[in-house]
Write a structure and sequence with these properties.
CATH class of the largest domain: Alpha Beta
Distance between the termini: 54 Å
Largest sheet: 7 strands, mixed
Helix content: 25-40%
Strand content: 15-25%
Number of domains: 2
CATH topology of the largest domain: Rossmann fold
Number of helices: 11
Radius of gyration: 20 Å
Mean pLDDT: 93
Length: 257
């Protein structure tokens, strides 16, 4: 089974990396795991071995056919539910129980939208353990400077950079290294009484122009005097820029504005 470039397929071949993902996800017997893009089923096999149930969504019909043959017993016993379709268009929540975890090697090109879609949904996962581009994992969990993506994760959960997975551990070999990113403690408690729509509207405005100071980017939410007063109230200087503002300061600023 050859990888299809247009689907961003890079099959993980390292058993050690798979074992690390299983440990990071803290999978236990009886858990329900949503796997996105199972491909040849190497990660699927490891998850099933823990005694967990798997709901796998695969957009490549060739892979669906192969997985159906490989895991025919698990499908018959309903330990594995295999869904053919694009994860971004599939009503997967219809198949999920109240509590579930996401464990997946996801295509680079849908990383951001996929993470934000599930974190912002009404039916959030308990945790997410995903293989993503190393640079993206570092931006979310390690970089002291914030981005819209990092704040989009931190407002809902606690990201942790688990380990680096070198490009040579994939077939075909991608041009960059990957990393295992774990997001735990997922909830909407950080938002308090603020709607997520309001939070992201203010944050996106704050990042609208990197060259401008925050006070100028936030002009849609009031006059300069009002914006400055609000910034000073949460401990920000008039020269502050969006990337320097921590999550909790953003929350406080949005509440005032």
């Amino acid at each position: 089974m050859r990888a299809k470039k247009h689907l961003g397929q890079h099959f993980l071949t390292s058993r050690a990396a798979i074992a690390t993902m299983i440990r990071a996800a803290d999978i236990a017997e009886g858990d329900t795991i949503l796997e996105i893009g199972p491909g040849k089923g190497v990660l699927t096999e490891a998850i099933l071995a823990t005694g967990a149930s798997v709901i796998a969504v695969e957009t490549d019909q060739d892979m669906v056919d192969a997985l159906t043959e490989t895991f025919h017993t698990e499908i018959e016993t309903t330990q594995l539910t295999l869904i053919a379709g694009d994860i971004l268009d599939t009503p997967v929540h219809d198949f999920l129980p109240h509590t579930y975890k996401i464990v997946a090697n996801i295509p680079y090109y849908i990383t951001g939208v996929l993470i934000k879609t599930f974190l912002a949904s009404k039916h959030q996962p308990k945790s997410m353990t995903v293989l993503v581009q190393k640079e993206v994992a570092e931006r979310i969990a390690k970089d002291p400077k914030e981005t819209i993506l990092s704040l989009s994760v931190k407002i809902y959960g606690h990201p942790r950079y688990v380990s680096t997975v070198p490009a040579r551990y994939f077939n075909p070999t991608p041009q960059v290294d990957s990393a295992i990113l774990h997001i735990g403690g997922i909830s909407k408690q950080n938002l308090g009484t603020i709607s997520q729509e309001r939070f992201f509207k203010v944050v996106k405005a704050g990042f609208s122009s990197k060259r401008k100071k925050l006070v100028n980017n936030l002009s849609p939410f009031g006059g300069k005097e009002h914006i400055l007063k609000s910034m000073l109230a949460v401990g920000l200087s008039e020269n502050a820029r969006a990337e320097e503002v921590s999550l909790h300061t953003w929350i406080a600023l949005v509440a005032i504005l």
